[in-house]
Amino acid sequence: MQYSEIEKSKVYNLAEIIDYIPHSVITKTILRKATGHLSVMAIDADETLIEKTSPFDMFIQVIEGEVEIIIDNEAYLIHTGQGIIMPAHIPNIINANEQVKIILTVIKSGYEGSGI
């Protein structure tokens, strides 16, 4: 699969590089490497990313709006400027009760030799 990154050495307002689309979750790749990736997501109101479990820690930062993050059946309401680490191997759900834009950062290194 081919991923398109945004132009390097350029200043961006990340909340402005992606737009909402009704009834959709839109993702734009900022940077993708073998060791992880950085993406911006625009999630329309009342959309839910189904429960999943990642093999890696993920950092979610809200850049516009607010989002409910459920980690191992515990809910957290995250507002603009706030972030949360979703731990590896723990089920999580992302609920957008209103339109929200987030930065998703996944770092794949650090688990070498841990038996995971």
Main sheet attributes: strand count, strand direction, barrel closure: 5 strands, antiparallel
* Span of the ends, CA to CA: 25 Å
Q: What overall geometry do the principal axes of the alpha carbons give?
A: globular
> Could you say what the CATH architecture is?
Sandwich
Total domain modules: 1
Mean pLDDT: 91
Oligomer: single chain
Structural class: mainly beta
Uncertain residue segments: none
Fraction of residues in helix: under 10%
Number of helices: 0
What are the defining features of this structure?
0% helix, Jelly Rolls, four-stranded antiparallel sheet, mainly beta, 116 residues, five-stranded antiparallel sheet
In short:
By secondary structure, the chain is mainly β.
What order do the helices and strands come in, and which of them pair?
Elements: E1 25-33, E2 36-43, E3 47-52, E4 58-64, E5 66-71, E6 74-79, E7 83-86, E8 92-96, E9 100-107
Antiparallel strand pairs: 1-2, 2-9, 3-8, 4-7, 4-9, 5-6, 5-8
